[in-house]
Amino acid sequence: MQISVVIATCNRAQRLEGALAALASQQIPDSLKWEIVVVDNNSRDSTADAVAAFCRTATVPVSYVFEPRQGLSHARNRGVREARGSILAFIDDDVVPAPDWVGQVAAAIDRWNADGVGGRILPRWESPPPVWLTESPRLLRLLAIMDFDGSGLLSLPLQRQPQVWGANMAFRRELFDRVGEFDPRLGVVGKKLFKGEETDLVHRALELGLKIAYDPALTVFHRIGPDRMRKAYFRRLVFERAQGGARVTTLVGGLRFLGAPLSVYRRALVEFGKWVGLVLLRRSHAFDQELRWRGAIGTLAGSLAMRPGSGTDTGS
């Protein structure tokens, strides 16, 4: 088995059906042997039935695995253990891979002689997006859109573009033997929008001198519904992403209050003041500044949750 496509999913059976249908339509060289591994991360909807229905007509091996430990990293790690391929390719359940995606994964690994590869993640809007969203590179990045035409090997420190993100990435199995698994403290957990498990893995790989390449020939389409085109979604996303990051980051500083460095409080106050000023002046970029403030508040909330005696589960 050369390639295992791993899809982690939780309570999104309809989304999953679209991803599986796109995989069923892949244009695969006859010599390439591959499989699909669906990891059901404690779903309570019809996910199992959707996979069973797909298996009845699938022309490639399909495995269904139930992972009860909640969290995207737990699900992906289970997929790594269950998969049989020498290359492990990952997509999200709301992604539609291009018809040649599986073949391009194998080609890119060989082309770059790489330990891991990633590629473009283009938006597939399910309703017309607002202008304030499409004209903001930062908001598009928050939606995991990676529209970068160039290619090359990644290096530290990781820059904004290009990067290898979870909706479109693949690694040789040996990488996990050297680097370890996805950190279960990172990544979406239930409805909590914690992030960063894939960039953490890539960072650890680069620290060990492994080769990770970005290749735009690997293309997937990220389906984005109206619920993620609202400012309320971005407010929540930025807060919870920062909150999750604070769970695994040791914040240095001098004096502390309730376990968090005073510098974290100071940053939150400064960002809040800037936001209020821009609102009063009716500046167009006030929303960007609001998100910076919400990120600062998220970091503070995560720091307070991790103080001794808080009882917070780190997911380890």
The gist of it:
With 316 residues, this protein is an alpha/beta fold. The chain has helices at 13-24, 47-55, 72-82, 101-112, 131-134, 137-142, 173-179, 197-207, 231-246, 262-280, 286-305; strands at 3-9, 34-40, 62-66, 87-92, 95-97, 116-125, 152-153, 169-172, 212-224, 256-257, 260-261.
Number of domains: 2
The CATH superfamily name of the largest domain is: Spore Coat Polysaccharide Biosynthesis Protein SpsA, Chain A
Shape: globular
Q: What is the correct CATH architecture of the largest domain?
A: Alpha-Beta Complex
What structural class should be given to the helix and strand makeup? alpha/beta
Briefly note the CATH topology name of the largest domain: Spore Coat Polysaccharide Biosynthesis Protein SpsA, Chain A
- H-E string: EHEHEHEEHEHHEEHHEHEEHH
Stretches where pLDDT is under 50 for at least 5 consecutive residues are none
User: Count the helices. How many?
Assistant: 11
Main beta-sheet annotation: 9 strands, mixed
Provide the CATH top-level class of the largest domain.
Answer: Alpha Beta
Based on the model shown, name its key terms.
2 domains, two-stranded antiparallel ribbon, Spore Coat Polysaccharide Biosynthesis Protein SpsA, Chain A, about 325 residues
Describe the protein's architecture and organization.
It contains eleven helices and eleven strands. The chain is of the alpha/beta class and 316 residues long. It has two domains: 3-228, Alpha-Beta Complex (Spore Coat Polysaccharide Biosynthesis Protein SpsA, Chain A), CATH 3.90.550; 231-305. Strands 1, 2, 3, 4, 5, 6, 7, 8 and 9 form a nine-stranded mixed sheet that branches. Strands 10-11 form a two-stranded antiparallel sheet. α1 links the parallel β1 and β2 (34-40). The radius of gyration is 20 Å and the shape is globular. It starts with a strand and ends in an 11-residue tail after the last helix. The mean pLDDT is 91.
